[in-house]
Amino acid sequence: MQTVRVELGERSYDIVIDTGILSGIGERIKGFNFSKVAVISNPTVFNIYGDVVINSIKNAGFETLNVIIPDGEEYKNFNQTYQILTELLKNKLDRKSCLIALGGGVIGDITGFVASIYMRGIDFIQVPTTLLSQVDSSVGGKTGVNHELGKNMIGTFYQPRLVWIDIDTLKTLPKREILCGIAEIIKYGVIWDEELFEFLMHHRESILNLDPLPLTHIIRRSCEIKAEVVSKDEREAGLRAILNYGHTIGHAIETETGYSRFLHGEAIAIGMNREAWLSEIMGFLNRKDALKIKAVIDSYGLPSELPEDLNADKLISHMKLDKKVEAGEMKFILPEKIGKVKIQKGIDIENVRKALN
Ligand code: NAD
Ligand code: GLY
């Protein structure tokens, strides 16, 4: 069992990573003294893992409840938030109750959001079941839902009490979703850790086979990096923005394609490659490293290039409306070498256009 600590004073918590630990969640939270525990999930995940989790919590002596919302990003919204809150009220969850998010980032984000506002805040635990949620969304306390005027526009910073990662759950995850998680792990390699980047380059086959040793290594390392960044800058006053490498262009691609053509990790993979080229154009990154970033993305079968039908000017107009825009200036996270990035504002639009073509 591997444990990574997110250091945030009295709000610090553990991320526990291992194989076959799903049924151990009840035992682990026994000491937490919760009055009731509600598992929030969707039918896809709950049908596979719901019984194991519910039985584990019951066997540990807790009264349980499950709230199931439909599967899909389109359900990460106010309506479902309200439905969950209603179920919690009807079942008399109190301030000592706890929510467990069992699922990917959608379930994790909405559960965290509900936990942060129910009776002014109750405890919640992340049990992430996608690779992306295990290495990114379950850690760091960004919660939220989408608004029709923008994705992730409504939310809170609210940390979980525990993140419980059973990597065996990845065995049922579709390969395309696995690759989305890989994109985020490549991101950690580029922004922070050249060794992780090299590890991804040299262990592709065993990682894609979901061999527990390399898989645990890359998940643990990603969690360590995210934990360190979040501990230093929980509310994204500065450093935390580096976690958005690939996201300025990636989000513009997602918006332009209506969130239907590319999964998030795929759009980010294209964004990471094109932002590496932007950095090369600006003279911050050497060509060899830019090519290496593209090579690792390609080697996993992730997309690295913009489809020809996407128009650079339209993408730029989306970038100007992004959440990351400050005082009208776009912000890019640009690699200086593998393992190190800088936050750059005030980039000439012509250079962005060049990087997109
Ligand atoms: P997701 O939650 O939609 O899960 C992807 C699909 O996999 C869903 O159909 C889900 O039901 C299914 N699934 C989940 N676990 C499974 C399993 N073990 N076996 C079989 N199927 C399984 O997508 P995601 O990529 O996990 O998360 C994306 C969301 O995360 C987005 O809403 C994004 O905004 C958010 N996000 C948040 C943060 C953050 O810091 N809070 C960071 C990154 C992304
Ligand atoms: N996924 C980016 C962040 O948590 O800050």
Could you tell me the number of beta strands? 11
CATH superfamily of the largest domain: Dehydroquinate synthase-like - alpha domain
The value of Rg in angstroms is 20 Å
CATH-defined topology of the largest domain? Dehydroquinate synthase-like, alpha domain
Beta-strand portion reads 15-25%
Question: Percent helix among the residues?
Answer: 40-55%
Count of discrete domains: 2
Task: Give the helices and strands as they follow along the chain.
Answer: EEHEHEHEHEHEEEHHHHHHHHEEH
In whole angstroms, how far apart are the ends?
Answer: 46 Å
Bound molecules: nicotinamide-adenine-dinucleotide, glycine
Tally the helices: 14
What features would you describe in this structure?
There is one protein chain. By secondary structure, the chain is α/β, with parallel strands linked by helices. It has 2 domains: 2-172, Rossmann fold, CATH 3.40.50.1970; 175-356, Dehydroquinate synthase-like, alpha domain (Up-down Bundle). 46% of the residues lie in helices and 19% in strands. It is built from 14 helices and 11 strands. A 7-stranded mixed β-sheet has the order 1-2-9-6-5-3-4. Strands 7-8 form a two-stranded antiparallel ribbon. Strand 5, helix 4 and strand 6 form a beta-alpha-beta unit. Helix 5 packs parallel to helix 6 (175-192), helix 6 packs antiparallel against helix 7 (194-202) and helix 10 (247-256) crosses helix 11. The protein starts with a strand and ends with a helix. The model has no long low-confidence stretch (mean pLDDT 96). Nicotinamide-adenine-dinucleotide is lined by residues 42, 44-45, 48, 71, 73, 76, 103-107, 109, 129-130, 132-133, 136-137, 140, 142, 152, 169, 172-173, 177, 180, 264.
